[in-house]
Amino acid sequence: MDKLEDLLEPANVQVVVMMGGMGTRLKNYTCHCPKPLVDVDGKPFFAYQLRLLASAGFKKFMFCVGYHAPMIQEYFGDGSAYGVHITYSYDGEKLLGTGGAIRKALPCLESDFMVVYGDSFMDIDYTEVLYRYYVGKKSGAKALMAILKNEDKLDKSNVVYQDGTIVLYDKLHPVSQMDYIDYGICMYERSLFEGYAPGCFLDIADIQKSVSMERKLEACLVLKRFYEIGTPESLKEFEDYAKERFVEKKPAVFLDRDGVVNEIVFNEDTEELESPVKICQFSFMDRALEALRTIKEKGYYIFIVTNQPAAAKGKATLGQLYDINRYLMDLSIKNHCEIDGIYMCPHSEKKTAYTKEVFLNKQCSCRKPETGLFQRPLKTYQIDLKRSYMAGDSYTDILAGHRVGVQTVLIGNLKCDMCARLENNKPKMVCNSLYEFSEKLPMGGTG
């Protein structure tokens, strides 16, 4: 990377995909086919994950392949069908292990890279992964691991995470303090692999453990569960999920956040009502949780699409904004109204004397009324636009909804100055609250 800030753009980051495994536990499926190509509703399993990564903006991929490597290369080719560029590194006859495969590919790897696995589906905010790695590197970290609070539910927990720090990663020697699990997404400095001989056998877990003990392994907390296809049972679980998400059409409700889902707070410094910038400032609007539950029960996806320029203006850090997103997502899960995705525009062209993260000061295509925030869910879910809604309290929400092609709902009062800004783009519905909208919302169901 020419500059550390280059790591913040997915298009600049190389993604290494581990695809060398033989899939012995899936032998009825993998006798003549590698795990990444196992069929799921007419498509190879990894095609679903590649679609996610491409929609997040990643362009550069290195596939580390072994078992049935020619089949993988024949199917994915150079990646142009997915709008990405793929190169290949071959393990050869000798088993090298996950770390050994990366060491072999080292001459073609960049100074920093992301590692994912060809038998896992992981739907998270990848821009947060890049940001956390960027912040960690500025403090001396050499790697990052995305981790999920697991408590031995999905698999055996292997991470001790305390006071915002990964204290220990060890997949072979569990200890009682391990409540978290390696999610399957990591970032590494290339230098971590340079001290090993080419062609050596190396488990990447050994490097992860060593870096964790040196306190140089940054964490990115995630909340959405992962799917993997290590067994016939887990493959069936993903098949059911994929059918619901990628095959069956379903309507969505896109929601603005501040003033719709949560209260706006009074900032004593500016003497203005503003978005919360700390978790302690966050509180739901009256009956908002009930509203979210009703929307889900009526058969809709829920996506938050929110402009959050506070970090760009120096009122917070981008990390604090991600913390609030995770807090909101966690509360929705605990209250049985899980939000399917939170999409945030943190940009602003307005730089202030307090701005520290100046990379956020730019013109973008995601700030509403632009439609960039809507594009990723539209690319990675089967959404019935005609039966979907955008609900917000600002004219920018209504304009964005019209541009995307969904029905629009104003939460609050339709004032004269707003009418002028909306011109002919009047909302279909005006409601006093999110709860009122949820009550008026027709049943969605499956199309």
Report on the architecture of this protein.
- The chain is α/β, with parallel strands linked by helices.
- About 30% of the residues lie in helices and about 20% in strands.
- It has 13 helices and 21 strands.
- The strands form 6 sheets. It has a 7-stranded mixed sheet, sandwiched between helices.
- Strand 20, helix 12 and strand 21 form a beta-alpha-beta unit.
- Helix 4 crosses helix 6, helix 8 runs parallel beside helix 13 and helix 11 packs parallel to helix 12.
- The longest helix has 17 residues.
- The protein is globular, with a radius of gyration of 23 Å.
- The protein starts with 13 loop residues before the first strand and ends in a 7-residue tail after the last helix.
Strand order of the largest sheet: 5-4-1-6-11-8-12
| Beta fraction | 15-25%
Instruction: Find the count of extended strands (DSSP E, 2+ residues).
Output: 21
Rounded average pLDDT? 91
Distance between the termini: 46 Å
Residues in helices, as a percent range? 25-40%
Could you name the ranges where pLDDT drops below 50 across 5 or more consecutive residues?
A: none
In DSSP terms, counting alpha (H) and pi (I) runs of 4 or more, how many helices?
Answer: 13
The coarse overall form would be: globular
Largest sheet: 7 strands, mixed
> Mind telling me the C-alpha Rg?
23 Å
Would you tell me the structural class of the helices and strands? alpha/beta
